[in-house]
Design a protein that fits this description.
By secondary structure, this protein is mainly α. Helix content is 59%, strand content 0%. Helix 2 crosses helix 3.
Length: 76
């Protein structure tokens, strides 16, 4: 089963995702959390995210999809 939660900032997506993750014993994948983690690590992709995020711009889909592909390759 795949669940995707959409909503504006502050709508409770993260709160509900955490609850569902615990209830279903399934991993939670948050692109926002992953992008912030990569920025904090100073990785190459994190530096690219920073170029957009520090200016309040949306990160291009191609970069987000690249990060998401990396995450899906990890075993859970």
């Amino acid at each position: 089963m795949d669940l995707i939660l959409f909503g504006p900032p502050g709508a409770g997506k993260g709160t509900q995702a955490k609850r569902l993750s615990e209830l279903l014993k399934a991993p939670q994948v948050s692109t926002g959390d992953m992008m912030r983690a990569e920025r904090a690590r100073g990785s190459e992709i994190g530096k690219k995210f920073d170029e957009f995020m520090s200016k309040g711009l949306l990160v291009p889909d191609s970069l987000v999809l690249s990060l998401f592909e990396q995450r899906l390759a990890q075993p859970d």
